Every structure is written in C-alpha cells, then in structure tokens.
From TrEMBL:
This is DNA alkylation repair protein. InterPro entries: ARM-type_fold, DNA_alkylation, Ig-like_fold. Gene3D superfamilies: ARM repeat domains (1.25.40.290), Immunoglobulins (2.60.40.10).
Length: 374
C-alpha cells in the first residue's frame, strides 16, 4: 500500500493540483509550480513527496496566508459523501494538509476554515494537532462546536485529531498528562449515530486508557448506564487494550468477573519451530464444574529477546460460555518471522492462558535458528 501511495504522487497528481489552483486563482504560476513540484519526485518516499509538493505549493501561493487559504478552499473538489471506499484519491490533499500545519499557525481563523474544508475531503487529524498545542483554548472551543456539525467527517476530526497517541503523529503530551479536555469532547460524541465517529471515539478512549487506566474504566462504567447498543460497542472497543492487559476491572465491566472454573490445556503444531516459520497454538477449554461458565480467554507468549530474557505478548483469544461438561477450542497462529518492529531469538517460549485476567501456564514451544541449508 505504501508503495502504491508513493507512486500516486507523480507528475500527474501535481498537474491535477495545479489545474485546480489555476481555476481558483487565475494568477497561479502553473508552469513553474509543476516544474518545481515534479523535479526529483521519483526518488522520494511517500511523505517526502508530499512535503516536496507542499514546499512548491508554498512558493507558488501568495505570501499572505489568508489570501492563500481562500485560494486553496476555492480550489477544492466536492466533499466526500461516504466514509469508506475512497482509495488513494483523497491523498491528493495531503500536501494541502502539510501546508496548513506549517504555514497557517500564525493565522488561526483562516487556518481553521481551511482545515474544516480539508477534513471533508481527506482528513485534518494531523494538521489540527499543532493548533491544539499553540492555541489550546481556542482550538478546543472550535472543536466543541464541530462536535455538533452536520458533517460526519468534521465530527470525526474532533475525536480523531485529539487522540493523545494518534498513530503516525507526534503525541499530544499535554493531553496524555491531563485528558480531561479530550474527555469533554468525547462526551459530546459518545452517542454519535455514525459508526465512523463511534470507532474514532473508542480509539481515543483506548489511547487515554494506556496512560490513565483507572480513568478509562471509570468513564466506561459511567457510559454503560442505560447505554444504547452503539455506545455499548464503543465501550467494548475502548476497553480492548485493557482486556489484553488482563485488567480485572475492565473484564468485570464486560461481564467477565471472577476466576472462572475452566481447565485450559494447549497443543503446539509444531512444538519445535525455526525462526521465520510459525506455530499453531490450540487452547482446549473445558468446563469441569457443575455450573455454566463465562470467561474471556487470551493467549500470552513469552518471546525470548536478544539478551535471553522473556517478554510477554498477549494475543486475543475470545469469549467463551460453556455449559457444565462442555469443551471448546481457540486457535492462534504465532508467526516467528522477523519484522522491522520485532526480531526473534532461539529458546524456549513459555505460553500462558489468561482466563478473566488470571494467568495459567499451558506449556511451551522451542524456537531454533533457521536452517541455512539450500
């Protein structure tokens, strides 16, 4: 996908941007912009291409930001009618977003107007963050207004742009320390009718919970009272990382409370695996008691690190509800392929089952160095 996105920013994309700007501003230096924005583009990666086009855009537009912002707004195509299925076409506006993030910071009102329009065609979740840092009071006030906007894309910006740990973006450290202003916005969106916004609200809460687990559970407990179905989904999705951490309060809120009386064993196929291969772990869950049992069962693999010490990683299993004497299985394929984010090392990898947050050993598999034969 990254490769496809990178190649999207070619001379053709530059010419489309130029034609749109020429329509909005007859004095736009189209030929110079196309030449400067296209020069050396092929040797750059995705974000560097977007930044390169943004810099050419800045040189081509008027130095007065308000004038430039009005031109950009006038050049934009129609807003998005759907929330999914746009492919790469919306990335045409990535240089615009980078432009307002860098050059609009001294011009709050025209910059906010431009972002309001951009987010209805792409997203302003990245460009809004510098404004939250420089103008926290003013930006939060504007986002409170936008939380009631008719556009689903604008409402989603309110929740997505304020995520303290938004992927691929610098963290909002102030809101990691004190997420109260963000929670005030999420309160306005917790019953939004659109799943596009609901998913973003849940992701924001999940982010908050990584720094403030007590606050996450307390918020979800409060929201769960008389919660409609959509808000219930938000709560479950927001608690997913807490559940993976085995947070007993989060599990209890979801109805998985106490130590379920379940026998869990495991089989490994194969039990001895080389780096680069994978092992299938099957958990066999049995209810040996005389009462119906409900539990969340997850899998913990203690991966061996470079210094030979183990580090646990939780893999989602699933919810089980078993009548007396009933048995079920849960399967997970654990990859031992090296990634840029995770390297694998030989040794015995212990495996545990998490049953309602309580860990129980279920065995181990052995990882060996990959064969160099052939």
């Amino acid at each position: 996908m990254a490769e496809a996105l990178k190649t999207f920013f070619d001379e053709g994309a530059v010419r489309r941007i130029a034609a749109m700007l020429r329509t909005a501003w007859s004095a736009f230096p189209e030929r110079r912009f196309v030449a400067e924005a296209s020069e050396g583009l092929g040797s750059l990666e995705l974000m560097d291409r977007a930044r390169h086009i943004k810099s050419a855009l800045h040189r081509a537009l008027p130095t007065d930001f308000e004038h430039a912002a009005n031109i950009l707004v006038g050049s934009l195509g129609p807003g998005l009618e759907q929330t999914e299925g746009h492919g790469m076409s919306v990335f045409l506006y990535l240089p615009h977003v980078l432009y307002v993030a860098e050059h609009g910071l001294g011009h709050f009102e025209p910059a906010m107007r431009l972002q309001y329009e951009l987010t209805q065609r792409f997203t302003a979740e990245f460009s809004i963050r510098p404004y939250l840092e420089r103008y926290p009071r003013e930006t939060l006030a504007r986002l409170r207004q936008w939380a009631r906007d008719p556009s689903v894309h604008v409402r989603r910006l309110v929740s997505e742009g304020t995520r303290p740990r938004l992927p691929w973006a610098p963290r909002l450290r102030a809101y990691q320390r004190d997420p109260a202003p963000v929670l005030e916005l999420l309160e306005l969106l917790k019953d939004d009718p659109e799943s596009y916004v609901q998913r973003s609200v849940a992701n924001n809460l999940n982010d908050i919970g990584k720094d403030h687990p007590d606050l996450l559970v307390a918020t979800c407990e409060r929201w769960s009272r008389d919660a409609p179905a959509a808000r219930g989904w938000i709560i479950r999705h927001a608690l997913r990382s807490a559940v993976k951490r085995g947070d007993r309060r989060a599990l209890a809120l979801l109805g998985f409370e106490g130590s379920a009386t379940l026998d869990v064993t495991a089989t490994f196929k194969p039990k001895r695996v080389s780096i680069g291969q994978s092992v299938q772990v099957t958990l066999h869950v049995a209810n040996r008691s005389s009462k119906r049992q409900k539990a969340m069962v997850d899998l913990v693999v203690h991966f061996i690190k470079a210094r030979g010490t183990p580090r646990p990683k939780v893999f989602k299993g699933g919810a089980v509800e078993l009548a007396p004497g009933a048995v079920t299985t849960l399967q997970k394929t654990v990859s031992l392929a090296d990634l840029t984010t995770r390297q694998h090392y030989p040794g015995t990898h212990r495996v545990e089952a998490l049953v309602n947050g309580l860990a129980a050993s279920v065995g181990a598999f052995t990882v060996t160095l990959a064969s160099r034969e052939g």
